[in-house]
Automatic annotation (TrEMBL):
<feature type="region of interest" description="Disordered">
    <location>
        <begin position="106"/>
        <end position="133"/>
    </location>
</feature>
<dbReference type="InterPro" id="IPR011051">
    <property type="entry name" value="RmlC_Cupin_sf"/>
</dbReference>
<protein>
    <recommendedName>
        <fullName>Cupin type-1 domain-containing protein</fullName>
    </recommendedName>
</protein>
<dbReference type="InterPro" id="IPR014710">
    <property type="entry name" value="RmlC-like_jellyroll"/>
</dbReference>
<feature type="compositionally biased region" description="Low complexity">
    <location>
        <begin position="106"/>
        <end position="117"/>
    </location>
</feature>
């Protein structure tokens, strides 16, 4: 899948007015969650920061709506700041097994016992049949949420579901030239890269067996 953000102003004014932000909001679903739908826009791109490695989005969820598929980023940080409304942060412990790279191939890989217990079981289609326990954390106006990237990010795979009155929030993080996003419940991962022209290309990685 490839898509192009053509709305990169070359020499924008540094002030992005509220009415401009409102006009730039668009509906966005998620290819791995048919129930996810949000209105969003990239504020940082609008003020000429598309190539700085910084991304800040404003997003709005209608009442009782999911933001994305539950996920974590291996190579990027992510943060969320709740502007208004309420939501439930859905957290999943999908901790990855820590392997010994010097262990002979013929031996069974050693790993943290807690992580090993979460090894995905695959169905005939390669999807995960593992039922992860979801920790639900209520969040509301003024709350801040942060996710460092890296292997440890698998401890807190996450998604957001709005409350009865919807939820408005800022979401952002560092944005390099490429990244990996993992979806534990689907036993799937996406690899993305961003070209100099602003085009994002997303490729689905094949399912893994938990090793």
């Amino acid at each position: 899948m490839s898509f192009l953000n053509t709305d990169f102003p070359k020499h924008p004014h540094p002030v992005l007015k509220a009415e401009e932000i409102e006009k730039s909001m668009f509906d966005m679903g998620h290819w791995r969650n048919p129930n996810a739908k949000r209105k969003t826009t990239c504020l940082s791109d609008k003020v000429g920061m598309a190539n700085t490695g910084v991304a800040v989005h404003k997003s709005i969820l209608e009442p009782n709506t999911e933001s994305t598929a539950n996920h974590y980023h291996l190579s990027n940080t992510e943060w969320i700041y709740i502007l208004s409304g309420t939501a439930v942060l859905q957290l999943v412990d999908a901790s990855l097994p820590i392997l010994n790279p010097f262990q002979p191939f013929s031996e069974t890989p050693s790993s943290d016992s807690a992580s090993s217990s979460k090894k995905p079981k695959l169905d005939n289609n390669g999807s995960s049949s593992t039922q992860y326990k979801i920790e639900e954390v209520p969040v509301s106006q003024g709350d801040f949420i942060g996710f460092p990237g890296g292997i440890g990010a698998s401890r807190y795979a996450h998604s957001l579901k709005s409350g009865e009155n919807g939820c408005e929030y800022l979401v952002g993080g560092d944005r390099g030239g490429s990244g990996v996003v993992h979806y534990p419940s689907a036993n799937a991962a996406d690899i993305w890269e961003r070209g100099a022209d602003g085009r994002f290309t997303v490729a689905g990685a094949p399912p893994h067996n938990g090793c």
